[in-house]
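Re-running NB-ARC domain-containing protein to confirm reproducibility after the cluster update. Everything else is unchanged from the original entry.
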Amino acid sequence: MLEVLAAEAVRVMTPGVTAATGYGARRIWQLVRGRSSRPPSDRTALQAWILRRAREDETFAAQLAQELVAVDTVDAIAVLAPAMFADRTEIRERIQGPGLWVIAGARGSGKTALARQIAYDLRDRVNAYAEVDLGDFRDGESLRLIEVQQAVLRQLGVPHVDDTAPVVDDQYRRALRHRKFTLILDNVIGEREAAGLAYPWEHATVLVTTRVLSQDLRVWNTGDTIVLAGVDEDGAREILAARCDEAMLAAEPGATRELIRLCDGLPTVLAQAGARLARRRGRPDAVAEMVEQFAGATGPLVDDLIRRSVAELPVDGLESIVDHPGTDLTDAGVSALLGQPGEELVDALIDAALMFRGPGGRLSLLWSVRRAVRADDAGFLRFLGWFRDMAGAADLAMDPAGVTDRVRHGRLRRYPAPPELGWPERRLRPVDWLQNEAHVVLDLLREAHHRGHHVEVVQICGALEALLTVHGHHLVCLAANEWGIAGAEVLGWRPAVARLHAMQGRIQMLLGHLDRADVSLSTAETLVAALGDRQLESSVLEFRARWAQESARGGAAGRLTLAETSLRTAIAIDQELSDGRARGLHLRMLANVLVDAGRGGEALALLADVTAPAGDGRNLARLHLVRARAHLALRDAAAAAEDLRRARELTTDSGATQYELELADLRAQVALAYGDVEQARRWWGWVAYRHFLAGHPRQREFAARLNQLPPGP
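Result of re-run:
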């Protein structure tokens, strides 16, 4: 046996042996030479020298046998790079040598192209390459396994492939054991097919692609699993530009980004879009037109790909969830759309790479799927009702039972309150759930309005007051309330229209848009005057007072007097209505105005009898903040520091996040009162920067404060 081995080695090393093609000869020469002196050049002497070494060194003999087996098929390398390939750099860098990888993805995601690109990347590290599409070897659900094995063996150059099933299977496992090759098994279905074709060959790189990463395939695969989502934006642009004109994309950057999003970053879909754009070269707004078209349908080829993928799903219900608002949703949202637990459908969609999990475990369904599948209207109605109830629970949770006399019928809800809901989320407070879903709200309200569900629109807008109070999200609430106003006007709910206009004025005031706030508040004042709703009148007076206070801070003369007058009128109405909660809030706000007017002593005296409702940590924190401001006005730094400390504790405990800037401002003032200029500079600098980013006019105020500080060290 060793004599044959030595003779074959000499034959391969001899110049002119075609099979070696230089590559195999070099590797064997390197092995034979090793670290010793140069072997004999005479063929007979060289063969004897190799034989002697093989007898003395079993490791050398085994390595030589392996190299000779590999060189038999070194001329089989014929892998070519895909004609057009983009992105996937991180995946390609992970696959640098032998091993087993499962690549999963929906039709059109580029699984096969990626596998071929990897094979091309590894072309200089292997001696052979084979690729088989298992779809060519199936009869229905039955795979002709032996024929696949024979095809692989022949592509890898194994001689004398047998025709008998047991012998072929044995050849497949044993003959490939020491060979260095890349094998692509395309379109594998399930563990049974994979296990019969992908063995842990020590020197082989095996790439298994599948459209469905089923449970049994997940269990079987002990190697690396790669699930393909879309290519990144740069890769997507490259695919588009290869088929149209880069100048077209550069001329419409926003439309190009939206087109990429609508294409899900799928190479096949992007290629279709690029080819269609090529026909529109020279037309203005060609990409924007394509976006409008893709929002409805991507074309027969892409739609066919998606429908075939959907048809293979093992569970029903997709038509109930494709119409969900927004770009993503939670598992609970899927269940709401279905009207039953959605875990099985979610698992099936993830296995088929038609749905992906993103940050926080949220689920994103491919836009291609959402376009291709006809929606079930009942799913949207279930989702809308579920969202309304969850948002309503967040709103109601702001008024815990026993804390206020306005539970369910208070907080100026000028619309039917949603039904009470036992809170189902163990890890999230209701208002924090609402914050997580804030990005869904506008899509939901727009769709609900156009479908005529105006009651739910108004109820959700009302519930957003809780979000605004605790976490801000001013722009979301501002846009949402426009839908609420439109819905309330359709319903003829004039008190709700007045309340929403007042809320718009409050939000615009908080954003520093005082002119717009004035218009909204004037509209609300006119509506309220015609309604005779005293509680609503008190609330609008509160918002007008805050507008006047902010106007005064901007330099408007006489506005602090208007703020004080408005709040005293509101307090009188509160007393008339025996509304203790509103009276306490308005007394605290009046004290804040008095501090701005330089009347800190009066403010503290006014606050002496003001208490926040039991259990209402957020409002208690606000009370301490006003007290801190009053103490600072009276130059009592220690008392101010203590009230500020308590306010920070209560704010943190309540989970409120929208008071960060006010807290930072007071921290700067307290630091300055203690002579710590650098700490004051740090906090005011942060506040000024945040106002600058938001385009808020108070940025100038804090910039001026910074300029008044003495120079730093």
